[in-house]
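Appendix B, record 7
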Amino acid sequence: MPKKNTPSRALVPAPAQKLYPIDEATIEPTQLVIKGRRHPFGDGPWKHEPDKIAWIDASTGLACTVLRKENGVLSGYVGLTPDHPLFGFFADAIPSMLGMAVHGGLNYAAACDERGPEDISVCHPSAAPDDALWWLGFSCDHGYDYVPDRAGKPLAEENGQAYRTEAYVYRETVKLARQLKAISEGDGAAGVAVDVSTSIPPIGLDPEGRS
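Structure tokens (predicted):
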């Protein structure tokens, strides 16, 4: 999808990518941002983490992205094509009967962010085909998550909060992709056959005009 923004110098273009080890897997990134504008200061488990990594999940074929938010935490997203039954659905409109489970619950649903710089936007690479994607995602800045301080405040483990690493967010993102794949095949995340066609309509058909 063409973009008008000039990518950050931290953005490594897809042709230059090499295989990237993450968690217990190895992926081929379509986007990779090293030490981007949102990288937290100070020492911590984030010190050597990228601030954005995108890939196509091998088991589902879905576009996935782990992206650092402005507050320093990582978040995860999965892109849906127009033929997916949840394409265009807001996060709070997704039927609970689907039994979807991901860290903190889904709290993001939007089309590709074509206006934002590519290194911090939720969208597939500018070199990708001009296909519409609808992204569903989650974040790791809930009350039980540790949010890095941009001023470099050290990690305080005694408060019971945990920083969610790239490996953790990768696993949750892949888990989300597999649940969404199951839904596209007619099963809910819990393996129960579902039909979302009579549920709250997607954004383009919403009678309340939530666009």
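Remarks on this record: The beta strands are 11-12, 20-22, 25-27, 31-33, 52-56, 63-68, 74-80, 108-111, 134-139. Helices lie at 166-184.
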